[in-house]
Amino acid sequence: MALIFNKRDPIYMQVMHHFRRLIVSGELKPGEEMPSRRQLANQMKINPNTVQRAYSEMEEQRLIYTEANTPSKVTEDPDIVKQLKKEWLDQALTHFVSAIDPVDISLDELMTMIEEKLANRKKGN
Amino acid sequence: MALIFNKRDPIYMQVMHHFRRLIVSGELKPGEEMPSRRQLANQMKINPNTVQRAYSEMEEQRLIYTEANTPSKVTEDPDIVKQLKKEWLDQALTHFVSAIDPVDISLDELMTMIEEKLANRKKGN
DNA sequence: TATAGTGTACTAGCTATATAATACAGCTAT
DNA sequence: ATAGCTGTATTATATAGCTAGTACACTATA
Question: In terms of domains, do A114 and A63 share one?
């Protein structure tokens, strides 16, 4: 998991996004240990404080929790995970529908294009 | 057309996005006159230089063109407009498919949710 | 008891962005 | 001609957000 950063968005936000995605997909399971701040900073070649910022915001959002002097862990509250998944999906839909709004295209055409994209995606394109 | 700016993205980019959208939707037609830099700056309560930055980038992208001392106009090249529409749609699809990737959901469910969103959108929700 | 690992806190500096203030050249209608 | 529009260019400044550097407190373990 290399994680390439874009220069537009703040790194700490991209880190947050990365982990939210992992939780949504289930690759990070409830109760699982997060990488320590310094570990992750080394891996990603970024500053530990940047990781700290991402983690502390995720903690505010109850996505992770921290006990004294031990690496943070993913929340074990199923409702929070469920809520995250719901928000993630809803936001994706909202953005998409909003983006597509000015485009003159039929629903059928749209569906076809989505299917194609999804198919290509799986092939690695 | 109020156009509310978010604080994350640079204003000049949001202005560009605004006009790209208008061209995609056809609300701005080929050859149509753009608001003058100063006019738009007044309307949007932003600095004329910010508008200038947006316009000059759009000009580099051939979306608009400028003749001496007269307001810029929307490109009259149909290929450029066509290309813009294509890119717009493709980008929306790519983002969406990428966002949806970690979510565990069937294609049918997805389609249903999109239809719902589209329907709600039209109602003004 | 040290050492090395946790998380946390504070401060300073950098960079991108936005703004502001001018200035200049050219067109057009009054 | 003159006033008021265009677009364009330059420079300086302010500010906010992000990142980097450093230090501290705590805990476990060798």
Answer: no
